[in-house]
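Please study the protein below:
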Amino acid sequence: MSTTQMDRIEVRPFGPFGAEIAGADLSRPLSSEAEQTIRAAWVEHGILLFRGGDNDDDAQMRLSRVFGEMEASATADMNDPTNRFMMTLAYDPDDTAPKFAQHYNVDGTDRAGWLGWHWDQAFMPTIVRGAVLRMTHPARTMGRTGFADAISAWQRLSPAMQARIANLEVVYLFNPDFASGQFGFPSDIRPLPRVHQGGGGSGFDFPPVVHPLVIEQVETGRKVLKLSPMHARYILGMDRAESDALLAELAGMLCDPEHAHFHEWQPNDMMVWDNWRMVHMAEGVPLDCRRSARRTTIAGDYEVGRYLDPALDRDRQVKRLVD
C-alpha cells in the first residue's frame, strides 16, 4: 500500500467563514492532490478544522508542513525537548512556576490565558504565515478560541471608509499589559495581582514597527483589513484623537462577535489559521481550570512591514515571541 494513497478530502464550510476538513488521514503522508485541496481550502476559508481524537504530534507536524516551512518558538523552555517546532501552551492551577503569571478579570470572571484580538507578530516587521493549534486537554468550561476574518471585514466597510483607509499605515508597539488602552478590548478588563513572578515579556527588543492598514491576499487579490487590535498604537501621520477614534471604530467592526467564529474544542482538534488574514483571541479559563494545547508555527514574511526607525534593518535577528 502506498504511503501517499489518494485521500478522499471533503471540505465542509461552517459559520461565516472557515471549513472542516474530513477524510484526511494524518497518520501517514498525504497525497499531493490532498495537499493541494487542503491548501486551496485554506486560501478560500481562512481557518481549517481537523477533528480526530487520535491526532498526535506526528499528525500535527505532518499537517503543518502542508502549508510551508515551520518556525521554532524563541521561548525554548516551552518547546518540546526533542522537537523545537512543537510548543506546549498550558495552564495548570497547581503549577507553582507558571510560564505566564498575569491573569485578568474580564466580564466579571477571573481568567488565566485570556488574550484579546490580534494577529501574531504584529509588533515585528516580519509576519509568520500561520499556525496549527491542537487542544490536547480542553478546559472543562470556557476556553474557546475566537477567529475573525479580515477579508469579510473589509467587504463590510462602506465605499467611503474603504477609500479613506486604503493607503494608511499603523504603528505597532509590543505591550504586554492588556488593560492599558488596546483597541477593541473589553472596557471592564482589569489585571489581577500577580501571585507568581515571571512572564510579562520583559527583555525583548521590539522597537515600533509600521504595517499597512490594508493589504491584498496574495493568491486572490482580495483586500484584507490588516489591523491587529492588541498592539496597535496609532495611525502614522494622523492627529492622535482622529487616529484613536478611527482605530476604535475599525477594531470594533473587525472583531464584532456577530461576524466571528468561536471554536468549542474537542480533544485533539487541530485548527489551522492564516495569520495574514485572520485575527484571533483566547477566551481564557477560570483560575481553577486546567487546559493544555500544542502549537506549531508556519514561517513566512509578507514583506511589507518595516521598523518606524528607518535606520533599523527589518531582517535583523531578534528574539521572537509567540503572542
Q: What stands out?
A: Confidence is low (pLDDT under 50) at residues 1-5. Residues 17 and 119 are 17 Å apart (CA to CA).
